[in-house]
Amino acid sequence: MKINTKIRPGDLSRKISRLWDLSAQKIRSIQRDDDPAKGSPVFTVRGRYTARGWTEWTQGFQIGSAILQFDATDEAEFLELGRSQTVRLMAPHASHAGVHDHGFNNISTYGNLRRLMAEGRIPDNEWERHFYELALKLSGATQARRWTPLPQDGGFIYSFNGPHSLFVDTLRSLRSLGAAHQLGHVLMGENDRRISLLDRLKAHAVATANFSVYYGEGRDLYDARGRTAHEAIFNVNDGSFRCPNTQQGYSPFSTWTRGLAWAMCGFAEQLEFLRAMGDASITPLLLKAARATCDFYIARATAADGIPYWDTGAPGLPRLGDWRSRPADPFNAQEPVDSSAAAIAAQGLLRLGAYLKSQHYWQAGLTVLDTLLQEPYLSADARHQGLILHSVYHRPNGWDYIPRGRKVPCGESSTWGDYHAREAALYVQRAAAGRPRPAFYL
């Protein structure tokens, strides 16, 4: 990746303003077409958002996007849209015991609204605030119940695959446990046992750092520092680690780049949170993981402009030649890029850069965001409901739309890619204005 060392947050202000103009059009268009009975919007097909059943993990991104739009622009219609849809649609997500995605759904909605109130951006209505806080408490405790214990008091929040399965992306959903803990909540177990949400957050973060991230220390023959495994498999009878695996990547021994991005963003955000809590007990390990994953992204996972292909081991990449030395090509005939991974990774780089006061990571994050804020990634077509083009959902399952005349998916968007591009843009917008950057903790 070729890092632009001269770009500053203010240099992106005009592009960010254009993003919010386009974003408003997209949100209104989706709202006009949306039928919640058909499922949450997941990704676009021929430019129109469609649902795709697996788990309901994207509705928070849809509704949260309207809240971010208000945060960035003060357009009251989007606050009303985000607020009303949160009340109408999000309650099942707060108590959903079957998924590991609480931080995605509930921090993006209840959490963003609670944050705006805490920041004084919207009036502090006591009952409304208590409503958001109750949802956040319930969400954190429900997420924490999905627990597989490991030896020496460890454990992890297991994925929807079952108690044997640790997903790397769950790291960013730890926000639900963090917010609930900060609100004074605990998980109540059998015999009124009080289970600390902070302890479970920390244990899951440690398990992810230990089993989902590689450090070049000889773990196996494919141990490259900073590489991640999408899934870690455990023997639930004795808690022993068995093997890496993947659901959405190419193989257990290659790196699915969106999983890598979740790790980058999740570790950086948890470092911020634990520092705010005055808890440095696991900071060295999380910092080791954050540096390793961000370094791998910069050096090995992405093209020169900061946009990665969907998996570092994708079989068609060798036919692209030295793809790391030039900008990514979303229209190539071999392997798709994944702009959603870039949107998530940008925020991880920015947050780690701010945490460490490191210009290296900070400038890398600005470089990635700058690429996303212009064509061919930013969608200026009013007929297309997506904001950030060339996102990939599930390449192995063949779920992504391939346009006529093309051989690989391109030109489509995802709710998580669009949401995280908005989050990163808001983060940099506030940095340019000298204002506090958004954080999930209060």
Folded structure, characterized:
The protein is mainly alpha-helical and about 450 residues long. A hairpin with a 3-residue loop joins strand 3 and strand 4. Helix 1 (about 15-35) packs antiparallel against helix 14 and helix 2 (about 60-75) runs parallel beside helix 14 (about 415-430). About 45% of the residues lie in helices and about 5% in strands. It has one domain (about 10-430): Glycosyltransferase. The protein contains 14 helices and 9 strands. The strands form 4 sheets. Strands 5-8-9 form a 3-stranded antiparallel β-sheet, covered by helices on one side. It starts with 12 loop residues before the first helix and ends in a 10-residue tail after the last helix. The chain has helices at about 15-35, 60-75, 75-90, 90-95, 100-120, 125-145, 170-175, 175-180, 195-210, 255-275, 285-300, 340-355, 360-370, 415-430; strands at about 45, 50, 145-150, 155, 165, 185-190, 195, 230-235, 240-245.
Q: What distinguishing features does this structure have?
A:
442 residues, mainly alpha, Glycosyltransferase, 3-stranded antiparallel sheet, two-stranded antiparallel sheet, 14 helices, globular
Return the CATH class. Mainly Alpha
Computed structural class = mainly alpha
What fraction strand?
A: 5-15%
Bin the helical content: 40-55%
Coarse shape: globular
Q: Write down the domain tally.
A: 1
Q: Distance between termini? A: 35 Å
Q: Largest beta sheet, briefly?
A: 3 strands, antiparallel
Please mark out the parts with pLDDT under 50 across 5 or more consecutive residues, or reply none.
none
Helix and strand string, N-terminal first?
HEEHHHHHEEEHHEEHEEHHHHH
Mean of residue pLDDT values: 97
Number of helices: 14
Gyration radius from CA atoms, angstroms: 20 Å
- Under the CATH scheme, the architecture is Alpha/alpha barrel
The count of DSSP E runs of length 2 or more, i.e. the number of strands, is: 9
Looking at the structure, the CATH topology is Glycosyltransferase
Question: Strand sequence of the main sheet, in spatial order?
Answer: 5-8-9
